[in-house]
């Protein structure tokens, strides 16, 4: 009886797993075909040529993906670092510096997570035009930094409440400055959640579509997903294989992060759930 | 002034974050709230129109369709990705090779929704699923999936289930892993069946996680935008729009900023209302 149940379970899970992996497999397979090869067959037929690198080159250069990749990489690194830094000092202020009404300050910052993004679109679009940062590198970095702050504050504040106050008080006795205490005592403690946060925020920025749509116009500023969405409209009829190679390369960074930091991913998930 | 003097140094640390949030988001919320009562189109002077934009949402056929689609998204997202996530977590819980399977089901989550959209346009194209249907003799089932109303919404939901079910599975696995062993041992001694144990012990103990998973699915399905924007742009003829897409189209393509703002406010009310319990747990629970 038990054996039968295990057998059925395995069969079911394996079938489902094959179904699950199949779309990825099809994309990979079709990204290696030449366009002629693709047009002569269907998306299910086995490739007769190996055109992957040519397709990637076309996507990067002709499709303009290379520029978008560079943009989003910069936004991801700058936005994630800046937001984590600003959030870390804020959390430090909230938890250790005896700020009166600190819970209300926290609520003010955390309120940034409760509204749907649609609430921000028009005001940001208008505001960015008025202040002359519409379609600019600085404007994008600022925005991504701001949008990542609330969640970082939330997580880091939670984490810092688990650090014993005695460390901080001892350092104060020894005459450390407030900022030195942050750098030398708090920073080493918060390294684990910071790496989780970096992963989360980089992925979030990398995957953003809608803010790229409303805050940018030119190719030199546009983030990757917005660029890819535009490319899809043009290439679907004229260069599907190039498009497939484009989605392979744009997914590589987040898949790599996912594989290397998998343990952190799950840990981060636990942190978010418990919080 | 006394407050400043006393808390000056601490404020220095908190203010950069607080200022950015206020400038970028809190002011935006107020601004959107105000223009939702106007007919502002970005060019001419705005007029106060009271609740007109709000009432329109429930009477104009385009918006009613959008409301209906949003409702379909929410309901199906509560059943399938959550149900599938739970099922997978139970099946995988004690299975050899759990890690391997877990990765496969979770993999699509590492891919952005935009890319997921492109992948599934590809699969729903004529040489995709339709080709297979013809091969296995189900010619009559073939459709222009993304061009036929309601089927296009279902097609996009399938894409989102593919992307999101793995996350729910992972959350449920975390939950299952932290369940106490005693009740199960006791039930086993009493000779309870597997199904009985699942129904009377596992499910009730899993409740806290289930609430989180349901809450997340609920809120995320309300706000779904990327997949729809990539796969159909809400078309054809605005038939597959959800509230988030309608808001975008009204604001950035038709320049009905007032109407768009009213829809944003409705979205806010719906999603905050829906996530109230969940939010209350996260904020007040530890404050």
From TrEMBL, chain A:
Pfam families: BPD_transp_1. The chain crosses the membrane at residues 7-29, 73-97, 104-125, 137-156, 234-261. GO terms for cellular component: plasma membrane. Residues 69-261 form the ABC transmembrane type-1 domain. It comes from the Bacteria. Keywords: Cell membrane, Membrane, Transmembrane, Transmembrane helix, Transport. GO terms for biological process: transmembrane transport. It is a multi-pass membrane protein. It is found in: Cell membrane. Gene3D superfamilies: MetI-like. InterPro entries: MetI-like (IPR000515), MetI-like_sf (IPR035906). Belongs to the binding-protein-dependent transport system permease family. This is Carbohydrate ABC transporter permease.
From TrEMBL, chain B:
The chain crosses the membrane at residues 12-34, 71-92, 104-123, 154-176, 197-219, 257-279. Signal peptide: none annotated. It is a multi-pass membrane protein. Residues 67-278 form the ABC transmembrane type-1 domain. It is found in: Cell membrane. It comes from the Bacteria. Keywords: Cell membrane, Membrane, Transmembrane, Transmembrane helix, Transport. One of its GO terms (biological process) is transmembrane transport. This is Sugar ABC transporter permease.
